[in-house]
Amino acid sequence: MEKIKMTTPLVEMDGDEMTRIIWKMIKDELILPYVELKTEYYDLGLENRERTKDQVTIDSAEATKKYGVAVKCATITPNAERVKEYNLSQMWKSPNGTIRAILDGTVFRTPIVVKGITPYIPTWTKPITIARHAYGDVYKNTEMTVADGSRAELVVTDKDGRETRQLIHEFKGSDGIIQGLHNIDKSIGSFARACFNFALDKKQDLWFATKDTISKKYDHRFKDIFNEIFENEYKDKFAQAGITYFYTLIDDAVARVIRSEGGYIWACKNYDGDVMSDMVATAFGSLAMMTSVLVSPDGVYEFEAAHGTVQRHYYKYLKGETTSTNSVATLFAWTGALRKRGQLDDLPLLSDFADKLEQATVSTIEDGIMTGDLAALSTLENKTKVDTETFLKEINKRLSAMMS
Question: What end-to-end distance do the CA atoms of the chain give, in Å?
Fold first, then answer.
């Protein structure tokens, strides 16, 4: 068959360890036979980030702003052990964090639902998408240990040199700790618009939750900015689309989520989103069955898997052992990027190919052929655990039949 042609490149960000191996397998087995793939390639493997002093990460993010769509492999965020293992000159920052900051993006994570993998919450029959604000809070914090007898104050100096002070705590009788958080209206506004636009794109209700009754300045600011932007820019659009925007306290939201059937987008502040996305992924079955897309307020998309580099399987792979690593989230990062590229460039064949590849993946699992992590979860009676490469070949059998 004639390969599907692309007009504009995707930005391709290669990664680390087992996901890097799977990345190449997916391209060779499932994409290159069908698509004349055009990518602008960036190697975000830890060795190349060290060689380029992390400039490659910045360059890849700038390229994403230029081309509008990127697909990213999982990467290592080094800790002290990794610095030693890879002989690094420093503990390089998270590539995801760097890219999020440059794109001013919001992370949307959605579970991939398949027959035979039953959510731990019985009422959840539809996916729940977590929208995570990707700026500030504890991830940009300043923190100190404080000696007994100290007085901690919050001090703000305005542009004219005037100080405003508020007492945090008088430490009497015990040492302690303090932490300073910040956010900016611009980033909160970008977060809100990204959420509202994503809800319109998906035609799903949007929930947002903070703890504004306790945090009467910080969290309340989020609530007010969301409400102002919704009322001024999105209220009529939501009404026309037949969807709703709903605000509640975070503890009420958790209770409502557990009782719900799913099928909506749940917007969370940075830390809340970090925690809740893992909770939702696990409750639906597996972090390896979770899509992740970073969306900027001006419509730039970066697709990736929600999980890490699968270090344990990589060490087995290096020893020549066979692994049964779940490639679905990485595969869906590729399909998400190809579909979006097709939509933006008016290439329905490319978007249709992405749909078919996802259908072939889901049908492979629902036919009982799956990797070990899913075999341990699946309630299907007749199931076969296969290795990573065999799983991709089984997907290709079904994809080939769909494409012919």
Answer: 7
